[in-house]
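ugh ok so i messed up the first submission bc i forgot one of the chains. this is the corrected input, ALL of the components this time, i swear. 468 residues overall. if the numbers dont match what u have on ur side tell me asap before i send this to the collaborators (the ones from the other lab, u know who)
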Amino acid sequence: MTLTIRTRLTIWYASLVMLILVVVCFGIVLSARWGLRHAADQELTSGIDGVAAFLNHKLGMNDMGNLNEELREHSSLLPRGKMFRVTRPDRTVVYQPDMMAVVPPIVPDPDNLRKESIEAKGRSYRTISRFAKVGPYLFLIQVAVDQTEYQELTTGLLWILLLSVPVAGLLSALAGYWMSGRVLSPIDQITKTTNSIDARSLSRRLPLLGTNDELDQLSITINRMLDRIATSYERIEQFTGDASHELRTPVALIRSNAELLLMLGDIQPNVRNGLADIIAESAYMTGLIGDLLTLARGAEEGKASPMELIELAEPVRSILDRARSLASTRDITVEYAPLSQIVPIRGNQAMIERVLMILIDNAIRYTPPHGRIQLETWVSEKGCGFLVSDNGIGIAPGDQNKIFERFFRVDAARTHGDGGYGLGLSIAKSLVDFHRGSIQVESELGQGSTFRIGFERGDVTRQLPVYQ
Ligand code: ADP
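and heres the new structure output, hopefully the right one now
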């Protein structure tokens, strides 16, 4: 599955925001816990010092008799929630309140404090213990505080923060989707414009937003690349044009010389056949060179050809006789039913006639004898144009979008014996494109083909199209 950049950016953005939030949540809760424990440790340490000082005080007063009672009274002096236990090294208890009984004793190294966080009976305690030497006596003093409530508080805080992560993730996904849409919309524009540029519109360029950012740089780079492609393309067209032009004269010379030789009376049959072949081949080459020249010089010819306001049916009327006499050689009839309406178009009559002749020529070539070709003009609210239909061999669906390519012929194995070079439809398309029109085919194998040409309706006030 391929994800769009927009979706990927959104996923990345939302995931990163959620990850950062999780880290921040844990950071907040852990530092809160550390702070609370640090404060408790300070209070507990001073609590131990207080008990040790109290015992020293009692020793000084020689009053070590009823330590249990004395310590109970002293315990009320400790901060709220703190409690302590005093034992002798042999673990006999000197003083221990009831609540301290649940806290297990922890024995430190001599001269050291020992700090522990422990769980007992479902509650959490922080406890510190150390030995205190009071005159000849050695006591183990252990102080503790119940931190269960703080634990519950910080755990609750952690849950609240963690539950806010998906909500924040959803909000950041929406924000990310919107932001990436805004950032990527110029790329969409670049893609659409680049897609619309083909060999016939190589002079078109991507618009620059003027922001001079990365996307503008991309457009500038693509435009420079198009400049280079256009230059190379023009050179190729120029070369094809020049080469075809140069070939025309020698081929015409070969043909006329062969025809002259053929006119000589006493030539052997095999020489005659050879000359006939030369004439047929050079006739074929003359046609091919002519078509190549038309394609290569399309732009120049276009510039020289005037666009006029003409009547849609005019080109059909003009070629009808030629088409009928061509078709009659193969016993094919050409029908034409004129529209009752007069429809104006802006175009070049000679070019439109050429398009119609290419289509009729093909229809004759690919329709068996006694077939039927139908010529129609059509008009709708927005457009108008021509239909050229035949009941010939038809074109397979897979070939229908290829037939407008240069040198494409459906049956590649066919020789040029039928006079085709695979250039007719690409010439027709380039002439229709020149008029900013469209050409499409509908066809079924064995049933026939219909070519539909569409133009904009002529508007007297409209600017003439400029050839690009
Ligand atoms: P060609 O010189 O071979 O006719 P075109 O460019 O005019 O070259 O046509 C390309 C191919 O399209 C032809 O080789 C032919 O196979 C197919 N084609 C064109 N017109 C028709 C049609 N009316 N009926 C059937 N096939 C057609």
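quick check: The chain has three domains: 5-154, 214-298, 306-455. that seems consistent at least. Residues 362-363, 366, 390, 392-395, 403, 408-410, 420-426, 449 surround adenosine-5'-diphosphate (CB under 6 Å).
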